[in-house]
Structure formats: structure tokens, C-alpha cells
Amino acid sequence: MPELTAAELLELDRRHVWHPYGPMPGRQEPLVVESASGVRLRLADGSGVPGGGKEPSGPGAPSGPGAAAGPGDPAGPRELIDGMSSWWSAIHGYNHPVLNEAAREQLGRMSHVMFGGLTHEPAVRLAKLLVDMSPEGLEHVFLADSGSVSVEVAVKMCLQYWRSLGRPGKQRLLTWRGGYHGDTWQPMSVCDPEGGMHDLWTGVLHRQVFADPPPAEYDEAYAEQLRSLIERHADELAAVIVEPVVQGAGGMRFHSPAYLRVLREACDAHDVLLVFDEIATGFGRTGALFAAEHAAVTPDVMCVGKALTGGYLTMAATLCTARVADGISRGEVPVLAHGPTFMGNPLAAAVACASIELLLGQDWLAEVKRIESGLRDGLSAASDLPGVKDVRVLGAIGVVQLDHAVDMEAATAAAVREGVWLRPFRDLIYTMPPYVTGDADLARIARAVCAAAREG
Ligand SMILES: *Cc1c(COP(=O)(O)O)cnc(C)c1O
């Protein structure tokens, strides 16, 4: 296939390719990324910029090759600092020599072999790394191919556990509102009922038990609501599933870790399993390797994904305790009946091992704290803007919440003019930059968030 110009590519893209949560044909023109390196996305020649902005970036444009359109070449290639880490995943930035080498090395051995009846070092090493770094008690690892699938597996584990113990009636899930757990059926059923398009799926989705969204600060009345819901539904509940400390795509809300202890105690008291979805929060993002550590709580089942492979390849994992695995193994059907074709993919597993070793081999907490204080400084200016309802920062996550729905196109264009890639949604403009983002680039990201808040 001959190389396509950006215009040809965009035309074919619009006609044939679905994008996340997009219509067909596409209505908004995506930017064409040609390559990425460090914290920068390099756009293809002639790739459109939302809002038609072709002016070079403002003062203090990012330096380095192709940082902004060169003089006399206003539509030339330009680079954007990625404020999104490609949806929480590229924690070490792009084109990282260590991750590249891990992929190349594994590529020379094998990209994939089936996992049924076969095993290999990358998967085994990865499982051991995950067990060692995760909260005490999580011992068994199911390697899945995406976050949503890892949640499906978590739910299957919980339902099967109770079935094995002779309590098949325990098959509902409890969660709090404002969550996001993925786009396949079980995860969708525990996504926020309002943001998660539940109305479209009335009668199709499993009907789960919902508590109110968790307040930011600890509130005893809310804790009591959690306890009494769990007690009341104990006979039909297989598990409670929540995102610990940070609710991501459901609304970028933070809550007191103390609620996790409330859930742990209530689940133990009433024979309900506890699942933490750490797909967004895992691998240091909140200032702890896993958000569960903020409360010193071990869940029965934990999902990880997103940053697992440093943003290189799709892979996720579901970890569980010996109790859950033993329970399943004592059942009439003593196996976990799940086995994706690409389970344990060696290429993804090798990169995941390298990414985890890279993370643990550095003072990652210092980097996350540095980003936290950079975002606090840089985003404080947003508090005074008209239309801004709240500004919050936790770990390497910065959020500006508006009092109205974001004008996506205007907000994105404003960020791009600052030389930064952001992807706002609903009433939220947010960033979770790669941990390798330097201070000057971080300040620029914060300026872009403020600009997007001003113009969105
Ligand atoms: C992104 C996300 C998922 C879904 O992961 P995919 O890899 O997109 O399927 C599930 N839970 C949480 C908390 C997430 O942030």
C-alpha cells in the first residue's frame, strides 16, 4: 500500500474506521500522529488542527526538533506534549529505549504462542512481579487481553466462587455511582448508570446494586449507607466492585481511602467478596503503587491494565487470593472457565516485565510527587476562572471541573495552541502526564489545561 497523505488518510478514516465512542461516519477530524517519542506526539504533515489553528505555538513553545512549525512553514509538522499518557498507560513516555529493547528481544524469540498447555518465561516472570508488588495476599494471576476482559474475569471468579460453595444465588454486584469499569457487558452494568448509557440498555444489562457516589471526605452517614446496603443485599451479592480512591472515566472524582476499609469490613462481615479495579490507578499514578495501599486493604480480587505494559501493548491482569482460587477449585466444575486466544501474550508480557522493572528501579514516588506539586502550582490559576467549579490534584492526576459541559472542539484547540494534547469529556478537563514529563513541559500542560478551561 503506498503511503497516504494526511488528507487521504483522514478521508478513509472518516469513511471506514470507528473511533472510541464515535459516530459513523466520523464527525470530528482526528489529528494524525506519525510517531511519538518521550512525552511528545509528532503529527503528520498537513494533519488538521482543531479550530483551524495554524499559528505557531505561543511564547515558550516546546523546544527540540519539530517542536513547533518552523518559520515559513506554518502548516508543517508539529509536536504536542501528551497530557493524557494515552489514557493512563504511557507512564514512561513513548519510544523508550528499555521497552523497545525488551520488545525487540522478545520478537526475536516469539511474538506469541498459545497459553493452553504451554507456558513461557515472560508470562511467568510477569505473574511473579505482580504478586510481589501487589497488596499482600494476592497470589494468583490471570493474564487477560484488555481491562474490560480482566473485569469480566474478576466477576466470573466471584460468581463461580459462590457457586462452588453452594450459594449460586449470590450473583449480583454492588458498586457506588460515578464509576467506570469498561465497555463489555459485566463492566458496563457497574458503570455509572447516568454516564454509562444504562438507559439505552434497560432490560439488557444486569441490574446491579448502586450506592451514592462516595463523598471526597470521610462521612460516617455515607459509610453507614454502604454497610447497610451490603447487609441488606448480602444473600444475593457475589461481590462489591469499586475503583479505589480515584474514579476515572466515570467522573475523575477522588474519595477518602477510609471508605475502602469500611467496604473491607462490611464484605467480611456479610460474606461478600471485594474487587478493586486498579486499571487506572495502578502502577503509582495516585502516589502509591496501588491505590489500595492508601487504606492498607487487600481486596479478594484486583484488576490491573492500562499502564501494565507502559502503554506499548494491550494486556491486563486479574489477581486473586488463595481463598478465591481454592473456592473455585473445590467446585463441581473445578476450573476457571476462561481462556482468551492471546492469553499471556509473550510480547506484551516481556514489555510489561520491562516496564515494571523500570518503574521499580527508580524513585517513582519522587517523580509522581514532583508532578503532583507541579500540577498543584500550575492548575491553581484555574480556580479563579469563570465557569470553573473545582480544581483537584492527586498524585500525577490533575482535574479541572467546569460548571457546564466542555465545548470539546474549543477546549482541544486551545490546548493544541499551547502545544499540548488533552482529551476533555463531559464537564472535565484533566491530565495524567507520563512520569517522565519534565518540569517545563509540565508547566506547559498546566497552562494548556487552564487555556482549555478558559475557552471550553
Ligand atoms: C480503562 C478502564 C477499564 C477498561 O479497560 P480497557 O482496557 O479499556 O478495556 C476498566 N476499568 C477502569 C477503572 C478503567 O480506567
Automatic annotation (TrEMBL):
**Residue numbers marked as site, Participates in the substrate recognition with KAPA and in a stacking interaction with the adenine ring of SAM:** Y21
The EC number(s) this enzyme carries: 2.6.1.62
* Pathway(s) where this gene product acts: Cofactor biosynthesis; biotin biosynthesis; 7,8-diaminononanoate from 8-amino-7-oxononanoate (SAM route): step 1/1
PROSITE patterns recorded for this chain? AA_TRANSFER_CLASS_3
**Keyword RNA-binding (UniProt):** no
Q: Which cofactor is essential here?
A: pyridoxal 5'-phosphate
Entry-annotated residues carrying N6-(pyridoxal phosphate)lysine: K306
The reaction(s) catalysed by this protein are:
(8S)-8-amino-7-oxononanoate + S-adenosyl-L-methionine = S-adenosyl-4-methylsulfanyl-2-oxobutanoate + (7R,8S)-7,8-diammoniononanoate
Check the record and name the Pfam families matching this protein.
Answer: Aminotran_3
Q: Which family does it belong to?
A: Belongs to the class-III pyridoxal-phosphate-dependent aminotransferase family. BioA subfamily.
This one is known as Adenosylmethionine-8-amino-7-oxononanoate aminotransferase
Q: Which organism is it from?
A: Streptomyces indiaensis
Taxonomic classification, please? Bacteria, Bacillati, Actinomycetota, Actinomycetes, Kitasatosporales
Q: Which gene encodes it?
A: bioA
